[in-house]
Amino acid sequence: MDSTGSRLGISLGIIALAAPIVALGLFIGTFAAPVTSAAHSNPLAGLSFYNNPDSTANLAAADAATADPDSAEAATLARMAEQPSAIWLLPEKYPMDTVQADVAAIADAAVAAGQTPVFVIYGIPDRDCGNFSAGGLSETDYPTWVASIATALTLTPSVVILEPDALSLATECGNVDQRVQQIQQGITTFAPTLATVYLDAGHSDWLDPATAADLLNRAGVQNVRGFATNVSNYNDSAAEQAFGEAVSALTNGAHFIVDTSRNGRGGNGEWCNPTGRALGTTPEATTDGGLRDANLWVKEPGESDGTCNNGPAAGEWWNERALELAAAAGW
Questions:
Q1: Where in the sequence numbering do the catalytic residues fall?
Q2: Measured between alpha carbons, how far is residue 271 from residues 7, 9, 201, 267, 304 in Å?
Q3: Which domain CATH number covers 226?
Q4: Model-level pTM?
C-alpha cells in the first residue's frame, strides 16, 4: 500500500444490493436542481448535523457508561459521541435489498431531530484497490445500489460525499476512465435529489492540486457543490485549506469541506493508525463566506484504519486510540 494514500478504516461485514431508482419526473426536478460550484452562498450554513444514535462512538459511550458511569473514560467517550459524524453507506452493512428503507429511516430520524444527515457513499467496484477497505459491488449492481440511496434522499436535505479515494487512487490502480464514468453516473443519479454533493479529492499530502483538479473536472465537479479533502486522514487544517483553495482555483471556484476528525496535531506522514495524533475541530459549517463550507467529522475518529500499528480490523472501534486522540486534544 502507498503510504501517501488516504485508505479508509470502515467496517466490512455483510454483502448485498438494492432496488432501482424510480422515475422522479419534472415535479421533483423543480425542487432539486443541483447546486453548482459557482454558487457563493453556503448551503450548509446554519445546519445542525445529524448525530446517529447507532454510531460506533455512541455505542462505545453507552458501554462505558454502563460499566462505570462516573469514570473519566465514560465522560470522554460521551463528549466524543456528542459530535455528529458521517454515516458510511457500505453494501456490506446496507445491502441492496434494504438500503433504500435503511437510508430513508435515517433521513426521517434526522428530519424529526431537526438535523441534516451526512452520508458517505462507499461501495464502488474494486473499492480501495483491494487494500484494507477492499470490497464493493459489481459493475452491474453498483448503479442500482446508488440509485436506491438517491431515491431515499429525494426530498430530504442531506450532505453526500461520493466515494472517498476512488478518483485519487485511480491513477495508481490504472482505472481512471472507469472511475470518472462511475462518479459521473453518481452525480447524475443524485441530481434530482435535495442532497448537497461533494466529490472526494484526496488530500494535501497525496495528489498535487493540478492532478486532483483534473480528475474532479473530468468527473463533473462543476455539476455538484464541490469536493471533500482529508477524508479519513490527519493533515492539519492549514494544509487542507491551502490545498482546497488551490484545487478550487482550477475547478471554477468549487467549494470544499474538510474532515477534521483527527487532524488536531496534523499528520506525521503515516495514514494508517499513526500515533500521537489528536481530535480536530468539531463539526460545524463555516460562516466567513469563503470557499470552505464546513469542518466535518467524516471519519468516526475512534475507528481503526486497519490492522496496522497494532490496530484492530478496519472500521472497528478502538477504545484505547479514541481516548488517546481525545487526551492529545486536551479533552
A1: 128, 165, 305
A2: 7, 10, 16, 8, 11
A3: 3.20.20.40
A4: 0.89
